[in-house]
UniProtKB/TrEMBL annotation:
Protein name: Succinate--CoA ligase [ADP-forming] subunit alpha
Catalytic center residues: 249 (tele-phosphohistidine intermediate)
Enzyme Commission numbers on file: 6.2.1.5
Subunit structure comment from the entry: Heterotetramer of two alpha and two beta subunits.
Gene: sucD
Organism per entry: Streptomyces dioscori
Any Gene Ontology biological process: tricarboxylic acid cycle
Function field: Succinyl-CoA synthetase functions in the citric acid cycle (TCA), coupling the hydrolysis of succinyl-CoA to the synthesis of either ATP or GTP and thus represents the only step of substrate-level phosphorylation in the TCA. The alpha subunit of the enzyme binds the substrates coenzyme A and phosphate, while succinate binding and nucleotide specificity is provided by the beta subunit.
GO molecular function list: nucleotide binding; succinate-CoA ligase (ADP-forming) activity; succinate-CoA ligase (GDP-forming) activity
Pfam families according to UniProt: CoA_binding (PF02629), Ligase_CoA (PF00549)
Domain CoA-binding: 4-104
UniProt catalytic activity: GTP + succinate + CoA = succinyl-CoA + GDP + phosphate; succinate + ATP + CoA = succinyl-CoA + ADP + phosphate
A GO cellular-component term linked to this record: cytosol
Pathway given in the UniProt record: Carbohydrate metabolism; tricarboxylic acid cycle; succinate from succinyl-CoA (ligase route): step 1/1
Amino acid sequence: MAIYLTKESKVLVQGMTGGEGMKHTRRMLAAGTDVVGGVNPRKAGQSVDFDDRAVPVFGSVREGIEATGADVSVVFVPPAFAKAAVVEAADAGIGLAVVITEGIPVHDSVAFTTYAKSKGTRIVGPNCPGLITPGQANAGIIPADITKPGRIGLVSKSGTLTYQLMYELRDIGFSTCVGIGGDPVVGTTHIDCLAAFQDDPDTELIVLIGEIGGDAEERAAAYVRDHVTKPVIGYIAGFTAPEGKTMGHAGAIVSGSSGTARAKKEALEAAGVQVGDTPTETARLVLARLEASRSGT
């Protein structure tokens, strides 16, 4: 089992013929992802050779879905064209659109996430590394060779910290890892993933990675308290960030006492979530919690 992405997923890549699209399509294929096509109106009817596989290029997402039955799109297009790409995918009926593009204007993100939701399309991102179900499929830019299948579910604002926790816990393995992105507006939230992992019978423990800025982690803490029965281990990036400075992601800014790492940690701990002070300590907490639950203590 997994959430959002499985070996049955059929993936289209919008922007596959560009430099980043080509590079990461090759990596997705190497991870076992069923990439069934790319989308580029100017190269429709062509195909791209990736080692031992030729991937067709379609003129639109709708054409790709009709020809292949695709249900996932990964978006590798420049920021100026991202809104149109997502709207096209939603209009075509895609179930999941993974928006890797960074630097998208916030008003565009508000528009396309709202529109996609009205069409029944889930957005992961924007400005995210995507998601991976190890051993089954990889949609985005997450390295596929740093972990293995297992029973930990991971949801993270940070791409880099996603990779680090995957590596730190590589001997245990993951059901699905979701990088939701760190922009002020994202299509899939911590709460969405917490709910999905709670319902996934093969996810035993959930790791939640947040960072300074906004109140997403406080809202996630309230959701954990009221709805999640599985153990949750957390980490919050940004304890040393200076007040009033944007750090890394567009949404990672502290204003006064709002959005601080300490406030987020306190909210999570009040909901019963153990929170590590470093990624490595967080991994240790995960291992200790799994050992305790499996020994019945």
